Amino acid sequence: MTDVFIVSDNIITSLGFSTGENASNMTAGITGIRLISDESLSPDPFYVSLVDTDRLRGTFSQILDPEEFTRFEQMAILSIKAAVAATKIDFSGERTLFILSTTKGNIDLLGKNTGKNDPGLYLWHTAKRLGDFFRFRINPLVISNACTSGLQAVITGSRLIRAGYYDNVVINGTDIISEFVVSGFSSFKSLSTGPCRPFDSTRDGLSLGEGSGTIILTNNKGASKQTFRIRVGMGFSGNDANHISGPSRTGEGLFLVTDRVMKNSPSMPDFISAHGTGTLYNDEMEAIALTRAGLQNIPVNSFKGYWGHTLGAAGVIELAMCVHSMNNNVLFPTKGFREPGLENKLNVIDRVIKTEVNACLKTASGFGGCNSALYLFKT
Question: Which of 113, 122, 360 is nearest to 229 (CA)?
Answer without folding.
Answer: 360
